[in-house]
Amino acid sequence: MINVTKPFLPKLEEYVNYLEGVWDRNWLTNNGPLVNDLELKLKEYLGVKHFLYLSNGTIALQIAIKALGIKGEVITTPFSFVATTSSIVWEGCRPVFVDIDPKTLNIDPAKIEETITPQTTAILATHVYGNPCDVEAIEIIAKKHNLKVIYDGAHAFGVKYKGRSVYEYGDIATASFHATKLYHTIEGGAVMTTQPELVKQMAMLRNFGHHGPETFDGVGINGKNSEFHAAMGLVNLKYIEDIMLSRKTQAGQYDIALANLKVTRQYIIKGADWNYSYYPVIFETEEQLLKSVEELNANWIYPRRYFYPSLSKLDYVDKYEVPVCEDIAKRVLCLPMYHSMKKEDIDFIARLLLRVQNN
Ligand SMILES: *Cc1c(COP(=O)(O)O)cnc(C)c1O
User: 86 CB less than 6 Å from ligand 1?
Assistant: First the structure.
């Protein structure tokens, strides 16, 4: 069986080595030494100014929204994982969908301004499949209208834009280290910012609002992560270059094997150092996609329809016209890609897809 992804696992001994320290210290969670070490190492690896390790990427979005005091309407993309929208609603705000650019698959900055109202306070955009948003255009709009900017960088681990970590753009950027992501800590997430006052506040928010052992500063939540998760993160970080390189190789193999398949691909913007976190293809029709999925499934291969359906179809959001997103969501498929995947598997998948097309 071949799934869309398979989490990277290091040698068990390497993980166990870290656990011995946990047993010695008897310190399991609450900002332990492994969590601190991981925060330092990830901050350095990613090249960001401030970094807070959290329990997952969804709580990262919620803490970001809370820390910036966002209220009312939040302009966002309908082409993302459901957590991008649900976290806005969970925080008592209203998602306002702006359609995507059909090439980059990211929110279309040219369509943002027309949706701004006096209630708009922020833009929450996703770097879809790790492709950086048009951060410059978004910054200009945000400055002009006094809006906060959050980037959902769940797919953007290690991505750079114009030589700088993509996580350095916007007021706050979030990451997810869930087992299905490029780099994982089993469950995990992070918030990153260049603004020191925001780090302090988010550190309190992740720890119940504790400001010292007996005082509180506002409403907090439990966004902490454990020593066990940090240990997985520390081990996996040693392999990240290897993991990224294998995906780049696999993407190249797919490109060659699928040269005659009638699909289009996401356009990665100029200036981006991309991470090959997914291998999405956009079919000409949904029918073609469904036939392809059927054939792959019959051969125990399970790609995923990321992202389908368009988030504009959720039953707890207001209706917006986002035809580009709704059309692409029906036609896009992420093909399997993971560290230990073999060229034979890629060639087999390609043969099946070409057979469906040529039948
Ligand atoms: C995975 C993902 C999230 C949520 O991250 P979790 O760590 O699973 O909570 C949010 N946004 C996007 C775009 C994602 O892909």
Answer: no
